[in-house]
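Dear Dr. L.,

I hope this message finds you well. Following up on our conversation about the binding site, I have prepared a predicted three-dimensional model of the protein together with 2'-deoxycytidine-5'-monophosphate. For your records, I am including the exact sequence and ligand specification that went into the calculation, followed by the structure tokens. Please feel free to forward this to your student if that is useful.
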Amino acid sequence: MKAIRGATTLVSDTAEEVRKKVGEMLLQIVSENKLNMSDIICIMLSSTSDIHSIYPAKAAREAGFSSCPLYSSLEPDMDGSLALCVRAMLLVETDKPVKHVYLHKAKALRKDIASVINIAIDGPAGSGKSTVAAIIAEKLDILSLDTGAMYRATALKCLKSGIDYAEKDQVKHAVENINLRVEYKDGKQLTLLDGEDVSGEIRTPQISMLSSYVSSYPFVRDKMVQIQRRIASEVSCVLDGRDIGTNVLPDCPFKFYLTATPEVRAERRFEQDKIKGTSQTYEQILEEINERDKQDKNRAVAPLKCAADATVIDTSYMTIEEVVAQILAKIQEKI
Ligand code: DC
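The resulting structure of the complex is given below.
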């Protein structure tokens, strides 16, 4: 006899959602372990105390697991534990090694067996998310994906093609033919446009504004989100952007939203630019930040918004090290 573990999370506490997620988890356990129904001796299920709509055991029975004893229990409330979570333990007759199944946000419970781990960091321009994402990725020995760089490269493509970015069809044509790749050298992201490394070229004030503009086109977002989801499904990475927690990876177990006042963000940019030797004044940077916030927050598709289940960190009066420490502590709590 062997024991197989499973866990999954729900989006909401409805009977329909419990049926869907419990059925999905149990069927996946059966298929991944090549079980026959007659191999299952019993199924024990437990749920967190925020689930009231239906017993998970009833949902399991309704999903076709009716020939073995089923049992549901309630888990104690623990600080920092996953919300809306159903766990399973199946006792089975099998000689083969067993595979445990962790789905949705429950992947975070077993970092050792979940194939990839993604961390979402969203926030407005200048909130420190790219810097923080790169440090977190280095500390966890995973990659960092700066999704803003992809929108910036798209804007550069429009600029280089000499098209009018306010003309939807022209932008669409440029994006359909875009050859955009992300590579890593010594752990650092390189953004390649048509085979050329444009990592430096995309960091100008003009491209900042242009990228914010072109990112509001749904077909641009579709293309970028498709690439981002593929990368996130293949490798463990920290993704920073505007819509990672809300749209790109809504099931991501680790979501953070960094924010800071526009004045603090402008001051940071001004200090960074001084080192690089660029010449915008503090007032110009503040105006650009306010304008970009407005564009990023008000676009119709996937606007900059804090996910309901994200941890919000106001970085205005925090050092980078403090922000990194807070994020790492939160991740540790869950794994
Ligand atoms: O993070 P950044 O400043 O490099 O991003 C440039 C622009 O790209 C930003 O103003 C809005 C857009 N963007 C987006 O719409 N969604 C993302 N996930 C990342 C960036």
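In brief: The pocket of 2'-deoxycytidine-5'-monophosphate is lined by residues 125, 147-148, 151-152, 211-212, 215, 241-243, 292, 296 (CB under 6 Å).

With kind regards,
A. P.
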